[in-house]
Amino acid sequence: MLGHRSATEQRVYAAVALRSSRARMPLGRARKPVGEIKMAKRRTPQPTPSRASTEPAKPERVHSSLYLPEPVYEALREAAFKERKKIHDLVMEGIGLALRKRGYPPIDDLKAGRKR
User: Fold this and answer.
1) With a threshold of 0.85, does the pTM exceed it?
2) CA dihedral 25, 30, 32, 37 (to 10 degrees)
3) How far apart are alpha carbons 54 and 48 in whole angstroms?
4) Is the CB of residue 10 less than 8 Å from the CB of residue 2?
5) Can you state the angle between helices 87-101 and 70-83, rounded to 10 degrees?
């Protein structure tokens, strides 16, 4: 019966059969490795000065997700590509404009702790 199927159909059939046979395999204990396994020894960490004294503190960031209609996302993606920027840069530019319209200081001033 496999002889009448195209090569693509045969690959798909084989992949599905393999996946379903894996799903039915019983879970067992891992077997002992054959032969000796040599792993590099971990170095003992050297004491280092605290980060607070050597590096400036990173500005606090908050993660936020955007749900955009696909055409809007594609337009942002295209604009970012043409301007050789990241989508994040364009979004931050838009946020800056929206805040300025509402009387807030520029984003750099807000990061520095200045408020309106």
Assistant:
1) no
2) 110
3) 10
4) yes
5) 100
Burial class, 104, CB count within 10 angstroms (exposed 0-12 / middle 13-18 / buried 19+) = middle
Summarised one tens digit per residue, pLDDT across range 69-95 is 999 999 999 999 999 999 999 999 999
Greatest distance between any 2 Cα atoms in the chain: 75
Per-residue pLDDT tens over the stretch 17-59: 666 555 555 556 666 666 666 666 766 666 666 655 566 666 6
